[in-house]
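Homework help board

Subject: predicted structure for assignment chain

Our instructor gave us this sequence and asked us to write out the predicted structure in C-alpha cell form, then describe one feature. I got the C-alpha cells but I'm not sure how to describe them. Can anyone check?
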Amino acid sequence: MTNKLKVGIIGLGSMGTTHLDIYSKIKEVEITAIADSIQSRLDGTTKAEGNISGQAEGGVTGLSATKYLDGMDLINNADIDIVDICVGTDLHFVFVEAALAKGKHVLVEKPLARTYDEAKKIVQLAEGSECYVMSAMCLRYWPAWVYLKEAIQTNQFGKCLSLNCKRQTSFPGGAFYSDHHQCGGALLDLHVHDTDFINYCLGLPDAVFSQGYVGPSGGIDHIVTNYIYKKSGSSTLVSSEGTWTMQEGYGFNMSFTANFENGTLSYLLDDDETLKLFRAGEVPESIKLKEGMGYEFEIRTFIDEILSGNKTNFELLKQAAETIKIIEAEKKSIDTCKVVSI
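My C-alpha cell output:
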C-alpha cells in the first residue's frame, strides 16, 4: 500500500500515547501530527503513565511528525485523514464537530461526550457525514469480554443467570480528574466502561437503581448499580461497581463474574490476567485468551473499516451515546434514591 492513512493525535496523556504506540505498528498508517497543550509532552521530556501494563509504553521521542500546541491547528492540517481525539471529556464534542467539518475520520476516546445531549449531537453529525466516527469503548474489543459476549449470545453454557462487573482503583489525581465538571467523576470516566459493555452485550436496560457517594473529583466517585431488565421470569440479574476512591497504592483491577445454567466464568485483571471456567464435576479450566489489549483491536477495526469502505460501526456509535443516557439515569437514581427508568 503506497498511500497510507495519515493520522493526527490530539492529547498525549496515557491514552493518547497508547494510541500513538498502536498506530506506529500498523503498516497502513502514518502518524503525521500530534498535538498537546503541554510543550514537554510534545518534545518528549515528560510522559504520561498508564494504569495497566501495556499502556503508554512508547512516546514521541524520535517521531517525525508535525507538532501543535493547539488541537484545532492539527485539525486544519489538510494532509490528515484521521483525527484521534484523546483530550478531556468536556472537550470531545467541540473537537469532533471541528474534525468532521474538515472532512476527517474521527476516533474519539471514551466516553463519547460529557453529556447525553452532546453525544446525540455527535451521532447526528456522524449520520450526516461521509466520514467514519468511532467511540473508543475498549471493552467491546477486549478478548475476555469478547469471550463473555459470545458465551451469552450463543448460550454456550446455558442461559446467563447473573452478571457482575467491577472496576476499582485509587484516585488518579491531577486537575482534570479533580473536577467532576470536566471528567464526570468516576461515574462517567471509569464506571462507564462496564455500563457500556452491559448495554452492548445485553441491550438498553429498562431502568436502573444506583447508590454511590461523592469523592475527590467533587462528583460521584464510587457507584454500585443494578440494571433492571423487565423480561418476566427470564431477566439476567445484572450489576456493576466502579470506584477510584481506594487508598493510595491500591493499584487497579477490573473483573467480571458471569453465572450460567451450566457454568461460571470468572475474570480478573490486576497484576496478571486470568479467565477461569467452573463447571460441576470438572476441574476448573483456565481459558486461553487472545493476546493483546482492547485498544489495539478497536483501532485495528477502525482502520480496517475505513480501508474497506464498510461503515459498520454507526450502530455502535449510537449505542455509546445511549450509554451516557444510562449513566445520567444512574446519577439521578443516586440523587433521588429511586429506581429511574431509561
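Reply (TA_rk): Your C-alpha cells look well-formed. For the description, you could write something like this. The first strand starts at residue 5 and ends at 10. That's the kind of observation they're looking for.
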